[in-house]
């Protein structure tokens, strides 16, 4: 369930130009079924893992049983195969009726390219639309129009070992300086404060998602991520401060030495009592349970909190790094009404509660977390609802920005670059995107 690392340049260009074809217009009539649901739907998604695939197969078969005149062809592939396949299908303008999308700029390319149906009439100010968390719908809203149906919610929080906190005399910190002070106390108690592994780069990207959102005004951040900053892109001082926050966290809270271990190896340090905290996705809560492999002593004695606010920062004090996976309806689909009816079924309250219970994910549908059996889910849903969602950097920004950003973050973590030098590399990536015609 990791966010996509990059968007292929081929797909990016295709979606920006829409292959030179005229816009595809939708009307409310496109979503009106004439009689009982009937027809054939093709669905392409990326939940191929044996843990998750049976759930989606069961939903498809349940809809078919409810509607005997409908057949659903469900195809599930992994993250990278999905990115490759959707690029080919987009190039051929042969998208399935329903297809998966990450949030933010990734989804925005399909919307801008007229490849995703405009679902505003179905989701804005309707009972169905009001059933979702507002931030989930916002992740698929572009220029005031809604182009995707959110399915799950995910956010990054600091999970912690309650026993170690008590031993070190530490409480949940209410500010970033208090977090750094807590790390000092935990070190003195003989533990690694925060287990952190950045082998594949995305964990640092998640931290920068959080720090950028806290340090940079939302309008400036959105402008720069979208490639509309021109010569001023990434010149707000908050960008340097965000990298300085990352460096302070590294110096005060991470283990001595490098950060090149995997995220999973770092997680083992948390659950086996070697580290006090780890920055985890709420989708990872299952791995902190006994069923997920955690020792009983930890599985029943952990809690979490959102990364606390940075005093005096220019961004959102309530920012929370995260995102929502969703599904889009092809603008070319001849069965938009049937596709929307299936998506209504998939995201009904009953099905949303089943998703929480069966998969341990948070649903994008409001007030469903109590259906889960995993520790922490209801609190996680309240936490997300009480914060401003900062969509993952690697789906919010263009890959000409993301790639140098992740490289710069690793250089700051390793001490090879100062924050001031690292942001210069990011600006060069943004300039490269402008020079080679990558634009909003």
From TrEMBL:
Alphabetical list of InterPro entries matching this protein: Bact_solute-bd_prot1, SBP
Tree of life domain: Bacteria
Keyword Transport carried by entry: yes
Leader sequence residues: 1-22
Keywords assigned by UniProt, alphabetized: Signal, Transport
Assigned protein family: Belongs to the bacterial solute-binding protein 1 family.
PANTHER family: ARABINOSE-BINDING PROTEIN-RELATED, OSMOPROTECTIVE COMPOUNDS-BINDING PROTEIN GGTB
Official protein name in the record: Extracellular solute-binding protein
């Amino acid at each position: 369930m990791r966010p996509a690392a990059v968007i292929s340049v081929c797909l990016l260009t295709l979606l920006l130009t829409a292959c030179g074809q005229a816009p595809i217009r939708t009307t409310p009539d496109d979503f009106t079924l004439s009689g009982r649901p009937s027809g054939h739907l093709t669905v392409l998604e990326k939940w191929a893992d044996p843990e998750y695939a049976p759930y989606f197969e069961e939903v498809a078969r349940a809809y078919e049983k409810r509607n005997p005149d409908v057949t659903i062809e469900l195809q599930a592939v992994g993250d990278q195969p999905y990115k490759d396949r959707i690029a080919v299908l987009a190039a051929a303008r042969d998208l399935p009726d329903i297809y998966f999308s990450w949030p933010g700029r990734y989804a925005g390319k399909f919307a801008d390219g007229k490849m995703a149906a405009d679902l505003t009439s179905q989701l804005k100010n309707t009972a169905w639309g009001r059933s979702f968390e507002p931030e989930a719908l916002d992740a698929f809203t572009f220029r005031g129009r809604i182009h995707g149906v959110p399915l799950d919610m995910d956010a990054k929080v600091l999970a912690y070992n309650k026993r170690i906190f008590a031993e070190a005399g530490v409480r949940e910190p209410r500010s970033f300086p208090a977090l750094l002070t807590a790390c000092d106390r935990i070190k003195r108690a003989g533990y690694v404060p925060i287990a952190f592994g950045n082998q594949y780069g995305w964990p640092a990207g998640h931290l920068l998602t959080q720090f950028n959102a806290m340090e940079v005004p939302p309008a400036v951040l959105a402008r720069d991520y979208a490639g509309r900053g021109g010569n001023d892109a990434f010149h707000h001082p908050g960008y340097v401060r965000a990298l300085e926050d990352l460096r302070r966290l590294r110096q005060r809270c991470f283990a001595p030495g490098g950060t090149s271990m995997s995220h999973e190896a770092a997680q083992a340090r948390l659950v086996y009592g070697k580290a006090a905290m780890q920055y985890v996705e709420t989708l990872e809560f299952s791995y902190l349970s006994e069923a997920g492999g955690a020792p009983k002593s930890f599985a029943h004695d952990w809690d979490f909190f959102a990364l606390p606010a940075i005093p005096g920062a220019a961004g959102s004090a309530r920012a929370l790094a995260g995102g929502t996976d969703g599904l889009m309806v092809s603008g070319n689909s001849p069965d938009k009404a049937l596709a929307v009816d299936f998506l209504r079924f998939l995201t009904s309250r009953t099905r949303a509660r089943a998703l929480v219970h069966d998969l341990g994910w948070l649903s994008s549908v409001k007030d469903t977390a109590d259906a889960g059996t995993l520790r922490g889910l209801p609190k996680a849903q309240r936490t997300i609802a009480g914060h401003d969602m900062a969509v993952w950097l690697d789906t919010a920004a263009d890959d000409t920005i993301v790639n140098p950003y992740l490289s710069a973050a690793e250089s700051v973590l390793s001490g090879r670059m100062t924050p001031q030098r690292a942001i210069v590399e990011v600006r060069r990536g943004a300039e490269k995107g402008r020079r080679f015609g990558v634009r909003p």
